């Protein structure tokens, strides 16, 4: 009985001490669980220590038998190669300006250039309906002003002279049928009704027939001179007015769907700064220019002041319909890239990040951002190219010196046994010892060799010392091979990883 008390007494005392310690000892289990849970939640993925391209969603083994390493969200954020931190004083000295990304409707506004042209609807092409000679030419040069009723030219044509005489003969004979036929023939040959009435009064044929202008305008083209022989196919002159003009512009293929007839348009001229003219889209041509890949568009403008003159250079704006509400930023904030467009986002406290974006339409000084940033994000509109170049430099340095970021060496020297050498392919297969610096176990694998001459003459089973370096692309290469004195036993157990032979010891 005494023995029993002696045996159970210490146990009871230990239990009492444990209960009291549980009541008064600080409870740290909750913090431990939370920390573990937060770490678990913060893991983005698992990566092979030797191959950064080998990623998995959970823990496990790499193809070389090594434990996968977790990558945490906080680590990813700290190593953001696009993040640049600049002292606020330097930011001020650089003149960095920012603007918020906004949301709203954008007008499909097309800004382009073109040339003023005559309104071809008002062009008059003057031809003769008979052969003859220009005896008198009242219009001396292209561009001369022409008034309605003004004499243009006089023509001598035997055909017209004979037609007049036939008409006078019909009048003398009193045959109304013949008179009507002769009168219609004169009209079909281009003789005006006033000239026919003169024949009725004077009963005398004119040698020269005069042609007069029917409206005001300008001689757009002049194709004859006095004394020249003409035929009905000869264009004597063309007359155009300037009360209305065309402006012929070209728009890019990507903007072709925005243009419709009837849309408002505006033009400005260099020689009259500050003034603009309002018009509309008159016609959209049906095909694109095969060389420039642009769509031709015709604009019509009222030109009573005649300030718009043919062949003048004009800056044109066509106002299309509005888009649905979209996120947009100033056009100057966008950095165009070969394959990726981006903006620089200001994060505050001197921190900036180059952010890739998907770009939509451009409308004046604004550009649509389909994805990449949200409404309210601050984007840099001045100095962004300096910040973006700094981001790219930092990213390159991180890629080139990855070992500095991880605190691991990028160069080790180890002993190994040659299991295969191919100088033509610059490759060597080694059964190497473990590498504690990189957490590598002893194994057999193939390496690229920096200098193929170093593997010439190597024999299977030969002992060597090699220098292995980790490069910016994440791959490992043998940069030095120091042959040893003798041969070792060949390895038998092998496994494959990405086309490389290896053996686990």
Question: What would your notes on this structure say?
Answer:
By secondary structure, the chain is of the alpha+beta class. The protein has five domains: 73 residues, no CATH class; 99 residues, conserved putative lor/sdh protein from methanococcus maripaludis s2 fold (Beta Barrel); 108 residues, no CATH class; 79 residues, Elongation Factor Tu (Ef-tu), domain 3; 96 residues, Copper binding periplasmic protein CusF (OB fold (Dihydrolipoamide Acetyltransferase, E2P), Beta Barrel). The chain contains nine helices and 32 strands. α5 packs antiparallel against α6. The longest helix has 23 residues. The protein is elongated. The two termini are 60 Å apart. The N terminus and C terminus are likely disordered.
């Amino acid at each position: 009985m005494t023995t029993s008390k002696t045996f159970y007494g210490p146990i009871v005392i230990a239990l009492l001490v444990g209960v009291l310690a549980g009541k008064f000892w600080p409870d740290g289990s909750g913090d431990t669980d939370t920390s573990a849970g937060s770490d678990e939640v913060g893991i983005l993925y698992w990566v092979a220590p030797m191959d950064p391209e080998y990623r998995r969603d959970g823990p496990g083994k790499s193809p070389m038998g090594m434990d996968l390493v977790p990558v945490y969200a906080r680590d990813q954020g700290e190593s953001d190669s696009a993040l640049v931190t600049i002292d606020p004083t330097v930011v001020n000295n650089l003149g960095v300006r920012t603007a918020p990304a906004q949301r709203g409707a954008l007008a499909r506004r097309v800004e382009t250039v073109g040339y003023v042209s005559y309104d071809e609807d008002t062009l008059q092409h003057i031809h003769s309906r008979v052969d003859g000679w220009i005896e008198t030419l009242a219009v001396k040069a292209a561009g001369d002003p022409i008034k309605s009723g003004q004499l243009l030219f006089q023509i001598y044509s035997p055909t017209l002279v004979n037609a007049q005489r036939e008409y006078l003969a019909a009048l003398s004979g009193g045959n109304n049928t013949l008179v009507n036929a002769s009168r219609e023939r004169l009209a079909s040959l281009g003789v005006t009704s006033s000239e026919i009435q003169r024949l009725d009064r004077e009963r005398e044929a004119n040698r020269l027939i005069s042609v007069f202008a029917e409206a005001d305008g300008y001689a757009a083209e002049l194709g004859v001179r006095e004394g020249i022989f003409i035929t009905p196919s000869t264009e004597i002159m063309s007359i155009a007015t300037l009360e209305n003009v065309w402006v012929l512009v070209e728009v890019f293929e990507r903007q072709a769907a925005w243009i419709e007839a009837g849309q408002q348009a505006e033009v400005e001229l260099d020689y009259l700064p500050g003034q603009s003219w309002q018009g509309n889209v008159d016609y959209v041509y049906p095909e694109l220019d095969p060389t420039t890949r642009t769509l031709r568009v015709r604009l019509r403008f009222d030109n009573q002041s005649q300030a718009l003159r043919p062949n003048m250079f004009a800056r044109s704006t066509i106002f299309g319909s509005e888009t649905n509400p979209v996120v947009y930023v100033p056009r100057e904030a966008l950095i165009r890239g070969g394959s990726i467009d981006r903006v620089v986002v200001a994060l505050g406290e001197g921190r900036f990040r180059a952010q890739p974006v998907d770009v939509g339409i451009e409308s004046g000084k604004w550009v649509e951002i389909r994805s990449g940033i949200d409404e309210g994000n601050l984007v840099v509109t001045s100095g962004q190219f300096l910040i973006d170049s700094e981001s790219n430099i930092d990213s390159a340095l991180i890629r080139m010196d990855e070992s500095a970021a991880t605190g691991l060496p990028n160069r080790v020297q180890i002993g190994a046994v040659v299991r295969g050498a191919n100088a033509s392919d610059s490759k060597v297969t080694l059964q190497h010892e473990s590498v504690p610096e990189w957490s590598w176990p002893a194994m057999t694998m193939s390496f690229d060799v920096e200098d193929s001459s170093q593997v010439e003459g190597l024999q299977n089973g030969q002992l060597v010392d090699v220098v292995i370096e980790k490069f910016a692309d994440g791959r490992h290469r043998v940069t030095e091979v120091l042959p040893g004195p003798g041969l070792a036993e060949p390895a038998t157990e092998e496994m494959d990883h990405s086309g490389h032979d290896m053996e686990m010891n």
